Amino acid sequence: MKKLISICIPTYNRCAKVKLAIESALSVKSELIDIIVMDNYSPDNTWSEINKLDDSRLKVFRQGKNIGFCGNLLDVVSKAETDFVFLLSDDDLINPKYVEKIIEEGLLDSCATGIIYGSIFNTHKNKFYSEYSNSLYNRLSGISEVAVKHSYMSGMILNKKYIDMKLLYQLYQCEDKLMYPHEVMVLSILQQNKDIITISDICCYQGVPGFSHIIDETVYYYYTERVYLIKQYIRITNYIYEEGVERDTIKKNIAHLATVILLNSSPLIWGKGHKKIIHRLKYYIAINSIRKMSFKFNLNIIRVLILKVLNLRF
């Protein structure tokens, strides 16, 4: 019997959390799935504990050394032998009924399907982290809807046939740090003219993050790292997409992301006290200095601020 989808779980040093994540995946009532776990050379007892789990659908692997989040994610996806992969963070829980439903409804049977997004619910805050309607998008509308708008890895279902893994590994080697490799996977799939499906059902439940090797490695919330991310998205977009409507649409999304960051009040981004103002100004200047980004960025700031004022008035 051919498997349809692999639930891919990269993990590092989160033994208790990853066991819960794996158990949630194993609760899916289907023999058409694989669960693949890649341990990034954790110093805790992750490796010994996950090897105690007994299920023919479960495949566990361990790196010979810590290769960082990006390399570990690429490797766990590469291990998948199915057409589709479901990405799951090691501190989140899958909704088994969601996976069972998309299998039963045949959403994984079509080669036209490139990406499937479901809603993500945060049980600790008792609210949706991201919420979708039931929709189907073609290439251009899909680019507008999802490109660089879904940085949260868990819940992404991607058609592996259309992920340019060679490109991903090349970027992993060439970039100082590839901050959101799963978003680059999405960009490579969007280029293939495949359907993007969004589903209102909850695909996974957001956990409480523990120690994160990503944060430790890049401190990626800080404003200088946000500037790096914006520049990286632009570099990769220019590399993947030729000049035209699609590239321009993605850059509009990037400008919107840059605006959201600017208007975010988190001290993780700006620091505290008087430094917040200085750092915001430096960020604003840095984004405006990016070639062909200034107009889109400032236009987006004006649009967002107008919408905020209108919402306050009405």
TrEMBL record:
Residues 6-145 form the Glycosyltransferase 2-like domain. One of its GO terms (molecular function) is transferase activity. CDD domains: Glyco_tranf_GTA_type. This is Glycosyltransferase family 2 protein. It comes from Shewanella polaris. InterPro entries: Glyco_trans_2-like (IPR001173), Glycosyltransf_2 (IPR050834), Nucleotide-diphossugar_trans (IPR029044). Keywords: Transferase.
